[in-house]
Amino acid sequence: MKSLFSDEFHHLQQSFVDMGKDVSRQIQMAIEAFITHDKSAAQSVISADQTTNHDSIDLERMALELMALKQPVANDFRAVITILKASSDLERMGDHATSISWETVRLNGHPQIPTVNTALKDMSQQVQNMLTETLAAFNTDDVVKARQAAKLDLQIDAAYVRIRHQLTAAAKQDASVIPTSESDLLVARLLERIGDHVVNLNEATIYQATGEMVELNLGKRQPGLVQDLLN
């Protein structure tokens, strides 16, 4: 990719990483707002999604201009296309953070389940850690780190299953928490989906570096691996 180490490509790559960091912050804010029922903070996340959408459009514009003006060779073309495609995963992650925030706005005084709140916060932190490792791998074309980061999704899948079990038990014990359980389950599911998008980014890193198209979502390919973590 030496021919593409230009100011234009560096700007494109850095813009992608910056967008990823912004999305990570949105996820953190969305979960904290959900747990504390902070509707103001949730609205801030919802508003920030417009910025994420604009960033995605800007990335697309920069990528298309780079391809049109620089006429990159095969490897360089692949690198630009990878960023173009991966930015859509970041945008979807931002959309999921917004959906979590809308749940916060929708909830109104429902009783909380402290153990589930703790589990959601831990799950969110796992997602953010995975995204941090993934962006670092993407920025350096580190295939080994990308594969390692993708494996972290197994922990996120397992966290989702644990939360689902917790919510089922809580609802059986106290029917008044059923509305809360439904929202908590949706939020956990959204975090799990965010993890899947992060896996896609690691697949993109490997494609960008090697041209190889791989499937790294082990939880989907081998569900038994998730079950092993639960035992």
TrEMBL record:
SUPFAM superfamilies: PhoU-like (SSF109755)
Residue ranges that the Swiss-Prot or TrEMBL entry lists as coiled coil: none
Keyword Transport part of the UniProt annotation: yes
Transport among keywords: yes
GO biological process: intracellular phosphate ion homeostasis; negative regulation of phosphate metabolic process; phosphate ion transport
Any one Gene Ontology cellular component term annotated for this protein: cytoplasm
Subcellular localization: Cytoplasm
Domain PhoU intervals: 18-101, 120-204
Record's function text: Plays a role in the regulation of phosphate uptake.
Name of protein: Phosphate-specific transport system accessory protein PhoU
Lineage: Bacteria, Bacillati, Bacillota, Bacilli, Lactobacillales
